[in-house]
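Discussion board: Methods & Data

I've been asked by a reviewer to show the raw model output for two of the constructs in my manuscript, not just the figures. I'm not sure how much to include, so I'm pasting the format here to get opinions. Each protein appears as its amino acid sequence followed by a line of discrete structure tokens. Is this the kind of thing reviewers expect to see in a supplement, or should I convert it first? Here is construct A:
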Amino acid sequence: MATVSSFSALRSFRAASTTYTTVFTLRWLLLAALVGALAGTASAGFLVSLEWVTNWRTAHPWALALLPAGGLVVGLAYHYFGDRVVRGNNLILDEIHAPSTTIPLRLVPLVLGGTLLTHIFGGSAGREGTAVQMGAALADQLARWLPRRERRLLLIAGMSAGFASVFGTPLAGAVFGLEVFLLGQVRYEAILPSFLAAVVADAVTRAWGVGHTAYPTLAALPLTAGGLGTTLLAGALFGLAARAFATLTHAISKVFAKTIAYPPLRPVVGGALVVAAMWGLGTMRYAGLGVPVIVEAFQHQLGAQDFALKLLLTALTLGASFKGGEVTPLFFIGAALGSALAGVLPLPVALLAGMGFVGVFAGAANTPLACLLMGLELFGVHAGIYLGLACVVAYLFSGHGGIYGAQVVGQAKHPLLARQAGQRLGEL
């Protein structure tokens, strides 16, 4: 009798589970479509605007002199209207860890306008932060129609949608949202919302006629003992570069906060320093995203100064409170470093550039799986082993720091670092 009762209970549980899963899937098909449409449309408009300001700046190099003035506008806007949203990506991560208040919708025009001002006057910054913040803020406006416990899923889906649509990498975008907020762990409860939102957002951006940079498909290369050793060494160097970038950016930010009491003046001073540095170098090679140099890194060996100068100028730009993001500059730093290493490491220059492209980002953001998928989506599957090893080793060698101060350590990267688990990255 007990056996029959247990079997009946199990069957009822399975039926209820199937019903709940069906309802959950259908609801998130609708929600993810809305999130993807909002984020994809926002990213499309942002990318078109960013291309326009980049072309304008290239045609008018004198605009670099206005970077301090642009910094003042950005600083004043965030000081008087930004309050909570000045924390950008870290605000979103905090809301995922401990949901409290809906992200203000004014984050969208603030981060969009701030990023475009940074780029039109030649600041060295990226675009991922803008897309991720817009995607999460727009998604969060839908939270009022969801149970409170599911708001976290909505924010993660918004982050995934923004990332996927701005780079044209839906798989990487989906996993980025799952991987970025908790170091050392992937939270699978958001896997369906993340994947659906990322796929829809990417499709919507492309439907608007907005394309993405095309990178070369990396050729297949058998993994030999020498190739394995070279890849491990390169991955370690990429991780150390990521660590240096994150450490320097946070240090510059702290110095500016300590020495300049009035926040709107920080990007003014930082902008003046960036202008002086670029004028001293006599080139605009390191302004803006630097995509042409990234493409160049795959074609022939670059000098070591390219990755070092981009690292310094981006850390200064972002540390002084300009807006944009870190990821595309990290692509530049990694690709340029990998390309430079082709002079001493026995691997093709394009392969080393691709490994650096994803490896430095993997270490800086602590997202090795997302970066591996990004490498496969951008460079093809033939070099997957090399790309994967570079991402994993860079992740290990970047330490427990990162570009996102609100990223929480869920699990140590390896047992010897277990004592540091549970600490916030921004406190290290």
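Construct B, same format:
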Amino acid sequence: MALRIALSGFAALIVAMGIGRFAFTPQVPLMIAEHQFSLTGAGLVAAINYLGYLCGAYDAMRATRHVERRLWLGVWGAMALTLLSALAQDEWTHGALRFVIGWASGWAMVLVAARTNER
């Protein structure tokens, strides 16, 4: 049972952090080359993403209600919004999406670790 819980937590973190965080990073040089971003704009989008992580992790840390719902929204939200970010055309839209993706990933990161350790 313990191995199953650990593997499910591992898989959830792979989805939330792997897709939500690391799917964007290799695309940045291509976006800069295609003039979707400037170098400064890419840095601002990354900073906005980290602000989303901070807000999501802080919110998850203080969560007392709807914890399981937030966990699932964090995992599935990071994945779905990362797919949706393919349609974004400018830095502001990417920034807004990356903030929400960061928030969802922050939820998932904190809540998966808490839930796995609790069980």
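Answer (T.O., handling editor elsewhere):
This is acceptable in a supplement if you add a one-line summary per construct. For B, something like: The chain has one domain: 2-118.
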